[in-house]
Design a protein that fits this description.
This protein is mainly α. It has one domain (2-130). Helices cover 74% and strands 0% of the residues. It has 5 helices and no strands. It has helices at 2-36, 40-47, 54-59, 65-79, 98-130. The protein is elongated, with a radius of gyration of 18 Å. It starts with a helix and ends with a helix. The chain crosses the membrane at residues 12-36, 65-84, 105-127. Keywords: Membrane, Transmembrane, Transmembrane helix.
């Protein structure tokens, strides 16, 4: 086990650093334009519903970190409607155009894939430290 970890730990460090940089670039280059291209109908459906607090709808109007996170959650609900089932957002795709649904699914699929690579690389490096 130690020989295996010794052989792959350098690749794990490379995986964390490079994949982390790719993930940040992916979020900036693909995520922020996707936030800006979110249809207004979808934002209204998400932030003006009966389950949405008034504070939450006010927070979503700005460009601070909370607003960006809330807008990414809208894209996540479009990509994976089962995430919004508790809030009654499982039918959010009805208000979206097909290109936006496909873009959301592709964006979050790639984001999840890169996140899993970072997580596995981090676990490999932690195992190497303790073994």
């Amino acid at each position: 086990m130690h020989l295996i970890l010794e052989a792959i730990v350098h690749y794990a460090l490379f995986g964390v650093l490079v994949t982390g940089a790719v993930l940040i670039a992916w979020i900036i280059l693909a995520g922020l334009p996707l936030i800006m291209l979110t249809p207004q109908v979808v934002k209204d459906y998400r932030f003006e519903g009966k389950d949405c607090a008034e504070v939450e709808s006010h927070l979503a109007t700005g460009w601070d970190i909370v607003a960006i996170i809330l807008r990414f959650s809208v894209i996540a609900n479009v990509a994976f409607p089962w995430l919004g089932k508790k809030r009654g957002l499982s039918k959010i795709r009805e208000f979206c155009s097909p290109w936006f649904v496909l873009s959301s699914v592709v964006f979050y699929s790639i984001t999840c894939f890169l996140s899993v690579i970072i997580l596995l690389s981090t676990v490999i490096m932690i195992l190497d430290i303790y073994m």
